[in-house]
Structure formats: C-alpha cells, structure tokens
Amino acid sequence: MWSRMKAWCTLKPGFCSERQIKTMIGRLLLLCVIIAGCVNTEYRFERVDGEQPVALGLKFDSMYGVRDGESVRAEARFTGGHDSAKVNIALNLGPPVQFTSGTYVAIIGGRSTEGTVACESLTFLGGQASVPSVGGVFVLKDDGGRTAYRVTMPPTPIKRRLGS
Questions:
Q1: pLDDT per residue over 24-35, tens digit each?
Q2: What are the residue ranges spanned by the domains of the chain?
Q3: What pLDDT, on the 0 to 100 scale, is given for residue 117?
Q4: Distance CA 153, CA 50 (A)
Q5: Which strand ranges, in their side-by-side order, compose the sheet holding 98-108?
Q6: Cβ distance 127 to 135 under 8 Å?
Q7: Average pLDDT of the chain, as a whole number
Q8: Would you say residue 19 has pLDDT above 80?
C-alpha cells in the first residue's frame, strides 16, 4: 500500500509529501480502531423498570435456527441460575432485511412470562453460501403490550438444528 501511495504521489509532484502520506495512513488506522471499538460485542438481558433498565444475570447460551429461501427463523436462549429465556424471531430477507415477528417465554425469579417481541434495531449478516448471523436490540413485551425486557445481541451465527 505504501509503495502505491508513494508512486501515485510521484505522478503528481507537490501533491503530498512522504510525511503527509504517513500521517494520513496513521489517521486512517486510528479511525478503523475507533470504529471497531464502537461495535457492540456484548450480550445484555435487561428488565425494563421505568427509565432505567436493570441488567439481569442471564447469559447468552445458544442460537439455533434455519434459513429457508428469503426467510430466517431463529431461537436465542439465555440462562442464568434457575432463570431462563427463549426468544424466537422471524426475518424476511428481501431487500431490505426485515424483522417480521417474534415471541418469547421466560422464567425469571420463579415467575413465568411470555409475550411478543419487537425489534428496535437489526443486524443480519450472511449470503446464500454463508452461515447467517443475527443481532440487534429486541424488546420483549408482556401480555399487556408493555415493555418487560430488552435483549441486546451482537451478530451471532445461527447453528442449524439436527433434523431441521
């Protein structure tokens, strides 16, 4: 890369010095590091109580699902002690990728809840020949339609279940 930049600059005398090129490359690398640091790589399962969400002890356990043409169905599981949650989502891959529906079942603090899932943000990675990955921010609503939990996931590869 350095030799190409240097060669290009020699074609345009006075355009940029060797020092300016090195400074530009350094700034570009710093920008890449900053952008990489902004990518969320953390799983969070939170109870939404008023303004402040409360992080729960549930940890990501697994992501299973299947891609069938332009649709993806996936199930994310979270566990922690005696608590667990299963979040099912469905996506449509036609441009643009869209969250179409979701449901969840959770047992937290000995109390069982279930409801629908809404999607605040969605990340989908994977082409026809690659393993699909799903991530985003998913809002779990109780049977009254109120926000009960929020799940944040980085893009996570979907494992195919045996027999699917």
A1: 676 665 544 444
A2: 2-38, 44-160
A3: 98
A4: 22
A5: 52-55, 44-49, 147-157, 133-141, 111-125, 98-108, 83-92, 71-80, 59-68, 159-160
A6: no
A7: 84
A8: no
Residue closest to 61 by CA, chosen among 48, 82, 74, 43: 43
Which pair of structure tokens corresponds to residue 121? 């943000």
Does the pTM of the predicted model rise above 0.85? no
The amino acid occupying position 77 is R
| CA atoms of 38 and 27, how far apart (whole Å) | 17
CA dihedral 41, 44, 49, 54 (to 10 degrees): -100
Q: Are 86 and 104 in contact (CB under 8 A)?
A: yes
Structure-block tokens of residue 91: 């996506």
Helix, strand, coil percentages, rounded to 5, for the chain: 20, 55, 25
Under the banding of pLDDT at 50, 70 and 90, the label for residue 131 is confident
Q: Measuring CA to CA, which residue among 103, 100, 99, 96 is closest to residue 122? A: 99
